[in-house]
Backbone:
């Protein structure tokens, strides 16, 4: 009996060690792919706007928790597929079954790794995401305060300042001088204002965490509720914009809120804002538990994908992930529109894919062929046949 327990423990450790290497590769690959979507904007901040490289690197660090919330489940699915695909391809799964170890007997190691991944992803969702988003926003405020002119581009409508859209014909970065200035101010929705000025300068006040537009020779056009249209000409006019409000709790978006803030909204919160908070809350909680669902799907697909190699495993993981996030997008949209509850909109994909995973697992445990296991070879054969036909033609 002791020998059997020792052998089972050794086997579990052996299976467990197969999962971390492809998991880390998947984390790096998927995180890099998601980061590429922000890379051009970040590179533009360094090259064109002169933002220090150190600040941009901190922005990347602050963005990572947002990415990890998605890449941890994605990397887990890829790791399970590749690990069990390798074990199956080398006939090690067959050897385990011949020793009386069923698919259920192989379940503890990937289940443990999936539980650890779920816990890590849950920590990221509860603490990492609000910290990263808040810190990212604060850093943007500091960059805007210390070098406000860096966000101004000539002949472009700039919306980097809160509540303002700024246009300028010419801009001199060294002296912060502008000509042909147009500023549309919507900080008060009941009284939108448009300001035209021949020239102006941009000033920054570090202590009060604000910036100031010092404008010359222009006019203010205002359309206030109840008072109608008004126009005022001026020789000099100072427009002060506070940047501090972006970092305050009152102006937090759902992405910067902690789980406690999402659970306990302030009184008199509008119904639409309540739905947005609930969607954000349940999204953060549902995504980590996708790790367990993906593990259940990845095991049978990996075992029956023995002949197609890593390329097939990667393709299968992309296919499953795309299907999951398409369903999630649809159900979240239904939740946002009120057709279903926010909780159902975020948790429905987990339930649907859990049932699908249980079906695949049961089929694989009884050694029945899976419908998806031969999909990649069929597609590859069809593509190869089409290429050959095209060459002959």
Residues:
């Amino acid at each position: 009996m002791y020998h059997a327990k020792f052998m089972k423990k050794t086997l579990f450790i052996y299976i467990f060690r197969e999962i971390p290497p492809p998991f880390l590769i998947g984390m790096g690959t998927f995180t890099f792919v998601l980061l590429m979507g922000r890379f051009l904007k970040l590179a533009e901040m360094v090259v064109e706007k002169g933002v220090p490289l150190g600040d941009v690197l901190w922005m990347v660090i602050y963005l990572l928790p947002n990415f990890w919330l998605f890449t941890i489940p994605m990397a887990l699915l890829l790791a399970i597929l590749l690990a069990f695909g390798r074990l199956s391809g080398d006939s090690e799964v067959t050897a385990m079954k011949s020793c009386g170890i069923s698919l259920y007997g192989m379940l503890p190691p990937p289940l443990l790794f999936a539980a650890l991944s779920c816990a890590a992803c849950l920590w990221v969702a509860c603490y990492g995401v609000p910290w990263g988003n808040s810190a990212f926003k604060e850093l943007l405020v500091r960059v805007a305060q210390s070098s406000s002119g860096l966000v101004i581009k000539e002949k472009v409508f700039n919306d980097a300042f809160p509540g303002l859209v700024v246009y300028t014909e010419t801009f001199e970065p060294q002296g912060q001088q502008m000509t042909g200035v147009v500023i549309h101010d919507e900080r008060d929705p009941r009284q939108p204002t448009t300001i035209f000025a021949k020239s102006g300068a941009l000033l920054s006040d570090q202590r009060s965490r604000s910036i100031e537009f010092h404008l010359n020779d222009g006019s203010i056009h205002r359309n206030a509720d109840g008072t109608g249209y008004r126009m005022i000409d001026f020789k000099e006019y100072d427009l002060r914009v506070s940047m501090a409000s972006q970092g305050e709790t009152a102006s937090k978006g759902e992405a910067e809120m902690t789980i406690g803030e999402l659970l306990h909204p302030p009184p008199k919160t509008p119904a639409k804002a309540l739905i947005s908070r609930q969607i954000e809350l349940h999204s953060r909680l549902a995504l980590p538990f996708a790790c367990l669902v993906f593990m259940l799907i990845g095991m049978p697909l990996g075992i029956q994908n023995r002949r197609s190699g890593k390329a097939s495993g990667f393709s299968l993981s992309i296919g499953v992930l795309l299907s999951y996030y398409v369903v999630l997008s649809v159900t979240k949209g239904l939740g946002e529109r009120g057709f279903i509850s926010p909780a159902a909109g975020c948790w429905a994909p987990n339930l649907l894919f859990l049932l699908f995973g249980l079906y695949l697992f049961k089929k694989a445990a009884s050694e029945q062929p899976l419908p998806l296991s031969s999909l990649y070879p069929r597609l590859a054969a069809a593509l190869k046949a089409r290429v050959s036909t095209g060459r002959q033609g």
About this structure: The first strand starts at residue 164 and ends at 172. Residues 300 and 362 are 9 Å apart (CA to CA). Residues 2-143+261-380 form one domain. The chain has two domains: 2-143+261-380, 163-242.
